[in-house]
Amino acid sequence: MLTYLLEITANQIDKTMTTTVAVSTNQAWSLSHQLKMQTLLNVFDNANKMGKLAQKASREELEVMTAVYKELHLGFSNHFNYISKNAFPTEKMFFYLATMYYLPESLTADLMRKVGEHLGEYRNNQIIVKANQLLGKLVEKYTIPKKYHQLFLFHITYRFLITKQLSLEVLFLATNSISDINANVRQISRDVQMTYKNELSVGALEVFGFQIAELLYSYMSHLVAEPVKIAIYSSYSANYLMVLKNILHGIYKKKSVLIVEKIEDAEIVIADSAVNVNDHQVLFYFEDVHRIETWKKLAIYIQTVLIKRRTQLNI
Question: For a surface tag, which of 78, 142, 154, 264 has the fewest beta carbons within 10 Å of its beta carbon?
Answer without folding.
Answer: 78
